[in-house]
Inverse folding.
């Protein structure tokens, strides 16, 4: 997930909701591999 | 920190406890003779896994908690135990996604599939018009595939997929493929043509040009609803990454179980170089997945080799192992379709003897033993045969 | 996505931690070295739970009266906000559902 511009200037101590969530939960688009199926 | 912070993509390259997109080719038998067939299918292998052996594999997959299996071939619906096996898998909570040419997907079978829990169907075409499609898949194959799609729609099967291998000849028909999919409420899948199986012979004349690949990349970026199964990750070096893991999952996230139980790193490398073992050995499939030498070595960090100095290596990871192997290129170097043209340079420089020849595999052969590459006419079977 | 201050953040609107939650009946969890994979057989979506602690929390949810109780029992105080958000994320993807 791309970080928004806002997040680059925020206080480094307070992680954004996205960043914290990415540490624990991640969805990956993996409808197939190598494209066969 | 709840985790050690390793990016997920990197974790995947180290391998998983069980595969995710496992492919299982049920049979080498096929009633078509597509010119690009990745598995050189046509003739059933006499040592094909028995129905009992196939069920045993399903038992193993269930024990390993494999979520679903991608079934193909050859033409999987030619297996006499096709429905028994699919039902068996689904009952054990192993989902089934299968790929078919549609010639055996009668109205009655479509209705039968519609009643089953967790079965996903994919019908293959390689042209939006019969002429384009049939030049690759054989006279009558387009009509047969469309009939199968009509049967699925009439049976209220729900959403199915239409799968297309992108070639020089059909890459101009992308919008039309989209329209066909939309007309059925189906999902469109585009997949990369690799020089594997019978593709060794046809790749040079049929693989999309560099210009066409750039066009395809931009088309895909605008259509996130089109599935690619991570097939075009080599194009991610062109800019924003395409959806997916953008890495080669062979031996790490995926592998192939072939009709005689051989386990290969992926469906595009059916060659002894990438053979990890056989499910008929002690320890079955689980032992091969977890302990084979080949898969262990694939799960080590791979060398970027000649690509190390390229700023885009992280995006494309050097591309597809199969594409390199079957064009005689070194695995630690550029993909033959490297978007910056480094692959073309490498192809020009390679030793012609390094190019693996086309193996007959299970292709149908004429009376001289020569593979029949030309697609043969096919008719849609409205009546199931024994 | 706007910047949020962790201290005053509210849970996602559709996640009520005072309800009883459980792993969705159509979801299979498979342990991996780094946590677990969660696959939803209905939506065909695959998610990664990237810490063992989260996996343990999710697996234990149905043993507690509600999610708040589970979090208080299993998650150190300083991490409760982020684990609550993780549960909200899982609820949004239907990996867990209220029952």
């Amino acid at each position: 997930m791309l970080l928004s511009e806002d997040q680059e200037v925020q206080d480094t101590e307070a992680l954004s909701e996205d960043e914290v969530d990415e540490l624990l939960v991640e969805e990956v688009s993996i409808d197939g591999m190598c494209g066969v199926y | 920190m709840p985790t050690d912070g390793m990016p997920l993509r990197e974790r995947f390259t180290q391998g998983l406890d069980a595969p995710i997109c496992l492919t299982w080719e049920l049979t080498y038998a096929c009633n078509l003779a597509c010119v690009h067939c990745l598995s050189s299918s046509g003739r059933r292998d006499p040592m094909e896994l028995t129905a009992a052996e196939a069920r045993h594999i399903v038992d193993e997959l269930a024990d390993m908690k494999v979520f679903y299996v991608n079934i193909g071939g050859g033409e999987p619906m030619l297996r006499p135990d096709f429905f028994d096996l699919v039902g068996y898998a689904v009952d054990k909570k192993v989902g089934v996604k299968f790929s078919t040419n549609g010639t055996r997907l009668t109205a009655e079978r479509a209705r039968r599939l519609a009643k089953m829990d967790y079965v996903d169907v994919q019908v293959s075409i390689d042209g939006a018009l019969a002429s384009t499609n049939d030049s690759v898949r054989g006279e009558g194959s387009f009509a047969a595939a469309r009939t199968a799609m009509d049967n699925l729609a009439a049976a209220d099967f729900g959403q199915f997929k239409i799968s297309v291998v992108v070639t020089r000849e059909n890459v101009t028909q992308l919008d039309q493929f989209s329209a066909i999919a939309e007309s059925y409420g189906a999902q469109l899948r585009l997949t990369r043509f690799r020089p594997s199986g019978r593709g060794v012979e046809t790749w040079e004349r049929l693989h999309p040009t560099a210009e066409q690949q750039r066009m395809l990349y931009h088309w895909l970026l605008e259509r996130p609803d089109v599935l690619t199964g991570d097939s075009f990750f080599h194009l991610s070096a062109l800019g924003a990454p395409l959806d997916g893991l953008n890495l080669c999952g062979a031996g790490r996230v995926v592998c192939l179980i072939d009709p005689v139980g051989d386990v290969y790193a992926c469906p595009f490398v059916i060659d002894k170089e990438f053979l990890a073992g056989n499910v008929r050995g002690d320890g079955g499939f689980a032992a091969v997945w977890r302990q084979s030498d080949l898969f262990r070595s694939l799960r080590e960090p791979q060398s970027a080799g000649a690509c190390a100095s390229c700023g885009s290596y992280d995006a494309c990871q050097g591309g597809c192992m199969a594409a390199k192997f079957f064009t005689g290129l070194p695995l630690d170097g550029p993909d033959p379709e490297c978007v910056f043209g480094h692959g073309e340079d490498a192809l020009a420089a390679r030793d012609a003897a390094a190019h693996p020849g086309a193996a007959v595999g299970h292709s149908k052969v004429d009376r001289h033993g020569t593979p029949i590459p030309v697609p043969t006419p096919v008719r849609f079977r409205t009546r199931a045969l024994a | 996505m706007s910047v949020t201050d962790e201290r005053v953040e509210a849970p996602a609107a559709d996640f009520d931690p005072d309800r009883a939650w459980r792993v969705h009946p159509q979801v299979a969890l498979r342990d991996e070295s780094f946590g677990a994979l969660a696959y939803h057989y209905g939506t065909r979506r695959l998610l990664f739970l990237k810490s063992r602690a989260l996996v343990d929390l999710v697996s234990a949810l149905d043993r507690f009266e509600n999610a708040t109780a589970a979090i208080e029992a299993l998650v150190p105080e300083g991490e409760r906000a982020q684990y609550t958000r993780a549960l909200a994320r899982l609820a949004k993807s239907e990996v867990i559902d209220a029952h």
About this structure: Chain B has a mean pLDDT of 91. The first helix of chain B runs from residue 8 to 13.
